[in-house]
Amino acid sequence: MSIAVFIVDPVDDFERSFTIPVATESFYRQYWLPAIADLDLQWLALFENGVDVEQEDVPAVLGEVSRLKEWARANMHGDDLEHMLRRLELLEAELPKAYRRGGAVVYIG
Fold first, then answer.
1. pLDDT tens per residue across span 68-88
2. CA dihedral defined by 46, 51, 52, 54, rounded to 10 degrees?
3. Phi and psi dihedrals of 95, rounded to 5?
4. How far is it, in rounded angstroms, from Cα 88 to Cα 66?
5. How far apart (Å, rounded) are the C-alpha atoms in residues 17 and 71?
6. What is the pLDDT of residues 3-27, one digit of tens each?
């Protein structure tokens, strides 16, 4: 199982094909969960079971992503760090693009 981002009830080809890989379940448990606990991250904790994210929630989600990046740089190294940073930077760059249509809802889980 893995965690990914997709648009709920897509209305066009862009929305149907929109997906962002976030983490495998094992990587999430090994690295994300300890960071979430250390930093008391509310939104990122919800990714494990899945959560709907509306456009107004994006700043809070990306704020937590930024904090997770800082944690990763301080607590991870090597290939795992590089993988984590690539996925977090992809999430930062691509998540806002999901809201081209007003009222779009994104599921992360």
1. 999 999 999 999 999 999 999
2. 10
3. -55, -45
4. 8
5. 31
6. 999 999 999 999 999 999 999 999 9
70 residue type, one letter? E
> Can you tell me which residue has the tokens 């690539």?
86
Separation between Cα atoms, residue 94 and residue 88, nearest integer Å: 10
CA nearest to 4, candidates 81, 79, 109 = 109
The angle formed by the CA atoms of residues 25, 30 and 35, to the nearest 5 degrees, is 110
Regarding pTM above 0.90, the answer is: yes
Q: Hey, what are 19's tokens?
A: 């997906």
Rounded Cα gap, residues 22 and 88, in angstroms? 7
> Which two tokens mark 41?
């991250």
